[in-house]
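Notebook entry, structure prediction.
Reason for the run: the old model in the group folder had no record of what sequence produced it. Starting over properly, with the input documented here first.
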Amino acid sequence: MSEESISQRSRTMFGLVGAGVIAAAAAFVAIGSTPDHSGSTYYSATFGRAGQGLDPGKSEVKVRGIAVGAVDSLDLDDQGRVKVRLRLDKGVRIADTTVATVEPVSVFGPKDLNLDLGKNELTGPYLKDGATITETNDPKELSDTAWLAYDLTKAINPDDVAALLHTFGAGLSGQGPALRRTIDNGAIVVDATHKDRAAINALLRNINGLSGTLASRGDTFTAFTGDFNKLSQTISAKPDKVSQLLDESSKLGDTLGRNLEQHGRNLGNIVDNGSGIVAVFDNQRRNIPVLLDSLNGFFNLLAQIIRIPGPEGTVIAQARDDLPLDICQIFIDACATKPQKTAFEMKLPGQSKTGGRP
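New structure, fully documented this time:
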């Protein structure tokens, strides 16, 4: 059938039928793509501000990260606060302890509405459809934190910062080797600490146990504090004596400092020799108990020799020897100069000659 055989009326009818079919298809598509919110419940919450990114129909309502609804609308109330109307899916209930918080999905991205159901989540009572969530938290914007930093930097004089950096750089100039040694030493300390972390953990546990022990001695510490308070009152009542004590302590400190300065090498030698003695004792530590037992037996035997007890508390025989106060006369090799008389050459009281008996 050619175009010439179709009348104008038929063409109009076919056009209207085609347009109707297209419109019906579009309506079916629109109805099919529109979500069904039947059975949903609606609530409202008021915020000081909503922030950028909280959009009706796009921002989701979440509970523990799971989407359970969406933001339905945003309005301003009479006090200039943001009133948010939210929709929850069918079957979702929220308790009267629910807290609504506007939280960002990302730093500069959209925002969602998060619901913390609170302690009555499982027991209720639950809010009815159309009720208001009274507890809300405003969103935290990055600009809030940046504004504090801006106020801080605004209060700093850039000339002072430049002078500080210049002085710091001048102070570090030429100190590269020292800084390197400091960093290397710090690395050694960190490595040693990591190596001994088991001992450090044990020390911390012991300190924790010590804290418990000290906690049970609270009365003792209280009494000590009271005694110290009485002592401080006594000291403050005699400032002249305290001043005299401090002066004498200062003199003693000066004397000790001068002696350490003048005889520092001798003290170093004593420490070095002491380390050698400690090393000898360490090498012979297995024989030290034997030595102590031997000396104990020797002196016990010597006590039995120099004092022989008799019957009924009497003494049959007793040895006596008086030692001089000069240590050089007792230990001849302890002094560089040999004394004129040794302990063996000294006359005892009641003796007519050296080495004799009374």
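Summary: Residues 354-358 have pLDDT under 50 and may be disordered.
The old model has been moved to the deprecated folder.
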